[in-house]
Structure formats: structure tokens, C-alpha cells
Predict the structure of TonB-linked outer membrane protein, SusC/RagA family.
Amino acid sequence: MKCKLLPQRWRAANCPFYACVLLLFLSSALHANDPLLSNTIGNDLDVIKISNAISTSLPQSTITGTVVDENGIGLPGASVVEKGTTNGTQTDFDGNFTINVSRNATLAISYIGFVSKEVVVGSSTKINIVLQEDAASLDEVVVIGYGTQTRAEVTNAVSQLAGPVLKQTPAISTSNALQGQVPGLFVVQGGSAPGFDDSQLRVRGSSTFNGNVPVLIVIDGVANRDPDGLNRIDGGDIESISVLKDASAAIYGAQAAGGVILVTTKRGKTGKAKFQYTTDQGFSRPIGKLGVANALQFMRINNTADELDGRPLGFPQELIDNFQNGTRESTDWWDDIIGGRSLSQSRHSLNVSGGSERVRYFTSFGHARQGALAVNDDKTQLRQYNLRTNLDIDVTDNFKVQFDVSGRRKYTQRPQGDTGGVGNQLAVTSPLLPAFINGDSNFPASGYSEFNPAARVTSPGYGKFNNDVFNANLNWDLKMPWLTDGISFKGFVSYDHAYWVEKEFNFTWNWYELDQNGEPVQRNSRTIEPPGLTQTFRQSNQTTVNFRLEYEKRFGKDHDLKAFVAYEQNEGAGNFFQAGRLNFESAAIDELFAGSLNQDNWKTDGSASETSRQNYFGRLSYSAFSKYLFQFNFRYDGSSIFPKGNRFGFFPGASAGWRLSEESFTPEVFSDLKLRASWGILGNDRVSPFQYLQAFSFPSGLSGNSGGYVIGGEDVQTLVPGVSPNANITWEKTESIDIGLEGSLFDGKLGFAFDYFKQNTTDILAARNSSIPNVFGILPPSENIGEFFNEGVDAQVTYNYDNRNGFNFGITGNLTYARNRIEFFDEVPPAEGSEFQKLEGKPLNSQLVYKYIGIYRSQEDLDNNINYPGAGLGNLIFADLNGDGTINGDDRYRYDAKAFPELQYGLNLVANYKNFDMSMLLQGQGRVKKTVNNEFNASGGGNNLAYFVDRTYSLSNTDAEFPRIRRTGLDGGVSSDFWYRNADFLRLKQMSIGYSLPDKTLEKLKSLESFRLYVSATNILTIFDALGEYERGDPEFTNNFNFPQLSTINLGLNVGF
């Protein structure tokens, strides 16, 4: 009889006995985790058991199927076993399987790193199984700097987010999809204008007072210093995101002080070509509206200000009566300009993956679009295109090559002026003025000071911004068993190019009034500044070469060693050019040559830069008995921005872990329990380069545009020295300490991770303020003298439930708290008795403000308190903190303004029932403040929030919550702690509901492997908003007069074929 071997399966009935025995041994070596083989092969081969297993397996029907992940990609080597028997098989390279089972059998499907699943066969002959990733698995592969580890091996604070979780939030900017998802990562979205809505990222808060050190983005192993690097990537291309939060980031040396985010993109898998197409169409509307005053409220509050100032009332009673009786109508600028309008958006993504055993590929194309929100706005738009190809080639069994190419084109356009211009005008424009003549949007009225938001967007002026990026990486992995087992030579060559073209054209816009016949006529035109055109060109290039020698070895059964040493070199270059002209006579030709011929109306600017780096680094990892873990890494960085002798810095890191769950004294309820700790030195070179060189500049404005002085009646070109150079500057250094406890219980159903961290930054570059006298004569240089401290905690808890009856759910909660203070920066000592003004020892962003102790509500209050110039009834009362009997600048104190949240948290829920799926994300922030005084202003005719109107001091409302409003400014223009308000919030950030066609339906369709319809929404509901009663806009935004926060609803489709 001829022996027949099927892929991933043996048939004993058709083979001689000795061939079966040999085949079992070979299969056990290849598939140690196969349940069939693990039940029949032990330390000794039990022939009787094998024979029994074979003889009692009586298949009666043949089942075929496919095992895929959530993206429809086949899982090769997945185990498929008939429950209660030893009958089983494994999937082939495409995830396909064939198995003979008894009637009404139940199949148990498992795959490393995925949640196991059971399926009742019933009458089906073809079954498609989708497995979900198991985030709690100890075999989960975690991406770390220049390598990977299993979750059990990790000794550092590393948080990882899977790509499918990221896709739950349908954001065009990838950074926005990270909100509330990752412990230790602060994400704040400061605006939502199309193309200008990227979030600000900080890992565990701030690490220095010398500017905001950006997070280092590493894409497929290559560091990218572009702050927009994360948003270059289509979210659908991302396999996982890892955040290095502690000394693990030291492997990136002087670029790592702000934390590191590692992005791994998807790659092809062996099998036939599989296509995935995803599209969603959505509409966005503002979450809420600015609660500005109506006409009657506006006139009342302004008249109150005039009355208290002793001036004639600005609005006569006759005008008030006209609005009161309806003769004239109040204008709600928000309703007229925004109203019920929606911003449309769409996304499309198509990818294909597959390949042979030797060559695999993943290719994707993405397109995203957003439109305008305001009436008459035909300019605001975003168009974005993404393209990626990842190619894997196994040249030989020991030599593998990866070649990746990606690019993005981003085109953004808006009306002239800043992106928040329309929102700002909605907030300050008088409600007494109509938005349109006779309600016709084709005829905008004058508006406040002729700045009608509806008219402004009709101007031929615009801002156009184009950004193209291109990246190519070549990676290799050469195993060298001819030298010794476990040694390999790896590396990559990367090229990155970015190009920006910006064109900003300002021109006049028209507004209308009614003539004596009641017809709209154009009266005047207006622009923010003289009609002009400015064009800007920027580009940057970056080349990186990396060589690594890696070694991996197991000694005996209980000792594992991994190590690598590497060399990396990076060279970057960039240039900038800008030109502009003013006084365009016509908008028909928006090119520079059409502007003024007078050279006084021309402007040019330009610059060029070059940087280079050399880095030597490595890592050593050791594990004993799978429970004692040790790791050491180092990086020796050199940068051209520092002077010779100080160009290189050494940045070491060390960590250790103890897997308590492997000890006999640990309760069995713990599936895993690990205590870990880390220490390391991180660096920061994101500072002004070449401070060791003397800089010079051409002065401007001294003699027309000559850039010099007039000597003897003639213009003389002049160079002016800048800040004094410092030949001793070097790196800023951050010492990072982390202690963590992580684990899981109840067979991995409940997982947790808790970390305490502390960061102490020294050698911060800052100019001396105290130790160098003011009469020094020149600007002193920056020196490495500053110190900064940051500490906090982050935590995550997960729970996964699967009842095997088609229903399962998972919930993940995380929070991060970070608190900082400035330790030293050579601060000028405050005046005697005003030590409370010191910034040292206070948190970053602490402001000098007056201390509020009340409101002048009566003459008695004026008589019994120390008054400042201009103080009167209704003004705030300030404390005389230094006790000198006067209120002046020396009485201000350092107030913790908390401009950036100290606390962020998120709660993510996912659930599946048969063919339905649901996800929901709650996200919030705490211990953050915003000021409300910007919305409290009656000067210049601007409007106010309605909330203040009946709550401000007046002669008839002396017990008011807020002080009086002044036409001449707010309390003399001073700042006090009275205006800071808690800005905590909790919102339902995201929710989606989906339905996937069942396997039986797909089986009939044949050409489809997956089909899912879904509805998703973002920024759905603000559950708690500490500032909500003010109706001042979104609590997260830094400026509530900007483009409003948007709530979006999307209808989407995902098809696999």
C-alpha cells in the first residue's frame, strides 16, 4: 500500500505501522502544541495509545474551513481539534483545513496569541472561523526598541495597542485615535479644523521646562524626527503601536527624553492574495454652540458697564424697545453661519496581501477627505492620500530581506486668515448687526467692524498647504550558523524625504447694506491686511544606516541569553525659502509677478541646515528558569549640533523582573504575576543647534529695508551679534526610575499593570538670570544649569469574558497621573517679602497672578480694603500678600495654572454576540484648568457669553458671582486666580456597532471571505463637563474661539475577498 501524506495531517490507516511512528515523531517536532500529538506522545512513545486513538476515530463527515484573524488574514498552523477526541489537524499556509469528524461534533480552534474558540459543526460542511487577538496572552509579541519580546519576558514599562483596537475610532489623524487608549500617554486635541486637528502627545507628562520635547516616532524600526510622523500612516496599515515609557527608551539615547512610540505596520502572509476594502462616509456637526448673548443681553451688559464708569449709556431705550417688541431681530451668529450645517467626510482604504513561502507582500492605498462647515465656505477642505508596499523575501533559509516603500500627499485649504478665524468672529460679533441682508446668504452684511464671518469666507483669498512625504527602507536578516548557532547580522538603510509648499493669498471681501429702496448694494470691501501673496517652500531629507550583530543562545534548559551590538548613522538636511509681495490690484492672477513693483512691498527669506549623528548601542537580556529576568542596554550618541569634546553622550539603562507566578508560594489563581523595576538615563538634543558658534543677524527697520544704519547720509549694511556662544554646552539628561507590578488571574481573564515612575532632568539649557548682572551688556548664552522633576503613576486593568455560546466581551480601563516641578533655573530673586513669586519648586506653567479675596460690593468694601489704581465698585479685591500696604506687581504669587492635564483616563469596552459586534470608549481628563476671562469682555463692542450677563456686578445686583464688566478693560488688564476654573471632563468618545454576514451566507456567496457593515460615532456625548454651564465650547480645546469640536457619525463597510 502506498503511503500518503496530506499537508499538516497524517492518516495511520493507510500507512505501515513503522511509518506512522516515524511520522508522529516528525510532527511532534514541528507542531509541539498540536493537541492530538500532545495527547499521544510523551517522554516515551506508547504504541498502544496511538493504536487506540487511531482505531477509535471513526470520521463520518468531511468538514472544510478557514481560520482567519479579525482582518480576514489566514492563520497558518492553527490547531483544529474535534472536542473530546484526539482527532485533529492544523491549518495550511492560507489558514485552510480539512477534517473528518463525527456527526454534531464540536470543533475547538486555537492559535498562539489569539482567544480560543469552539464551533458546533451541525449540518455545515464548510466553516469559517474568525479568531480575536488575546491581549492578555503571555506569548503576545511586544515590540521594543530594535527587537521584540514576549509579554512574559518584558522587564520594562511598555504599553502596546493592537491595530484593530486603533481602528475602532475612525480618525483621519492617527494621533487622535490614541485618546484614552494607552496608559502613560497623554493625548490632547487642541482643535478640529480639517487638516489642523492633530493631537499633542506626551509620554508621562513633561520632562523639561525648556520647551515641549516631542515624542520620538519610530516606524518599522526607523526613527523619524518629524513631529507629524505618526499621522503620516493610514490607521488601517498599523499592526500595533508600542509606547516605551521608562528606561527602555534609553536605547534611543538623546532622542528619547520625551518618550518613544514604536509603530509596526502590517506585512504579508503566505497564501493566496487576500483583499480588504474599507470605506466609511460620515457627517460632522459641532458638539455644542457658544452661548453668546442675544441683542437685549448685549445692550444691557454694555449699558451696565457705562453706568458704572459714569458715562452716557451706549444704547438708548428706543433701540432696546425695538428689539424688545420685535421691530428688530437679534442675530444669532452661530445659527446663521453654522446652524444645522454638517461637515462631510469620507475614507477609503484598499489593501492586498499574500505570497508564497519565499515572497510575501502587503500593499495598501488610502484616501480621506473632509469638507467645509460654515455657510458660503467653498474653500475649507482636506484631501489626503496614502500609499504603502511592504515586501518580504526569503532569499534563502538563512537570509531574509524586507523592502518597504510608503508615501503620503496631504492637501489642506482654508479661507484667508488663521484656521480659527471664523469661530473667533462668531464669538465677538455684535448680535445687533444682521448676518445677511434680508436673510439672503448671497449678501453678507457689515458685521462687527466690517468683519462678517459669512463675508470673510467669500473672499478670493485663501491658504493652501501641500505636504508630500516619501520613505523607503531596506532591511535584512542574515543568520550565520556557519559561525555559530544563534548569531545573525541585521540592519537597514532608510531614506526619508518631506516637501512642503504653502501659498497664502489675502484679498478683500465684500459686504452689503440696503439702499434707500431697500435693495442690497456693495458699500465697502475689507481685508485683515493689505492684499498680498506669500509663498513658502520647505524640504527635508534624512538618511539612516543601521548595522546590528545579534546573538541568541539557550544554555541547558533554564538559561536564555540574547544580545546585540549596533552602529547607526543618520544624516539630515533641510532648506527653507519664502517670498512675498503686497498690494495686488486683482485677484484674477494670484502669482508673485502680479503684485506691487515697488521693492518696499517685497519680502524674501531663506535658510538651510545640516545635521548628522553617530550612535553605538546594544542590549543584553538574560533569563534564568523563566522567572528571573535581567536586561541592560546602552547608547553612545554623537551629534553635530554640539561642540567637539561634548558631542558624545552615554545613556545606559537597566531593568529586572521577577515572575512571582513561577514560584511555589504564589496562589494558583494568578496565571501570571511579575514584579519589575528599571533605571536609565535618557537624553534630549531637541534644542537650538550650534549654540557654541557666534551668530549674527541683519537688523531690520533701522533704515527702511536696508538692514543697517545711516552713516554720513548713506545706508551701511550692518551685522549685529546675537547671543553669546557657549563652547561647553552638552546634552540634557533625564534619569528615569520605574517600579511596576503586572499580572493576570483566572486563566488570563483578568489582567492588570501598575507603575510608579520618577524622572529627574538635569543639564537643561537655560540662560542665567540671577548670577549675571543686567549690566553685562550682551545677551548671556544658555548653559546646562536647569533641573526639572516629574513623577506619577499609570495603571491598566483588563477583563475578558467568553461564555462559548457566541457571546464574549472585554473591558479595559487605564489612567495616567503625572505631576512636575521646576527645581532650578537661576531665577532672579523676587523682591523682599515676595518669596511666594518664586517659580523654582512650582509646577510648569505656574503663572504670576493676584490673589482674589472678594468683590467691592459697597463703599464699605472700598474703605476697608487696600485698593489698587482704578479699583471701584464691582471690581475684584486683591490680597496684599507682601504686607506693604499697597497692591502692585509684588503682590502677585505663583499659581498652578495646570494648562496641561495631570490626569487622563479611558475605559474601552468591546463585545460580540454571534455576528454582531460593539465597541465603546469613554475618555476624560482631570486636574486641568482653563481661564474664562477671555470670554468676559465688553470693550470694543465685542460680544460676551450669555452666562455672564445676569451674573455680573451691577448697582441692582451687588451679590453677583462675577465682577463688573468694563468697557476699558478687565480689572485694569490684570490677571488673578479668580478666572481659573476646573476643566475636567468625561465624554463618550467613540462607539460603533457592526454586523458581519454569517459563515453560511458567505459560503453561498463563495467570492467573499468577510462582509461587515458598521455604524460608528465619535465625540458622542460629554457626560461631565466642569465648564459646561458656561457654554464656552469644548473643555479640551486650548482656545474656544477656534474651529468648534466636532461630533461625527460614520456608516462603514468592510469587505474581504
Observations:
- Residues 1-59, 701-706 have pLDDT under 50 and may be disordered.
- The CA atoms of residues 429 and 835 lie 43 Å apart.
- The longest strand covers residues 532-555.
- Residues 295-309 form the longest helix (15 residues).
